[in-house]
Amino acid sequence: MEIVQPPEWPRAKGYSNGIIADGRILFIAGQVGWNPITSEFDHADFVGQFRQAMLNIAAVLKAANAGPEHVARMTWFITDKEAYLGAQREIGAIYREIMGRNYPVMSVIVVKGLIEHGGLLEIEATAVLPR
Question: Measuring CA to CA, which residue among 75, 69, 72, 74 is closest to residue 19?
Answer without folding.
Answer: 72
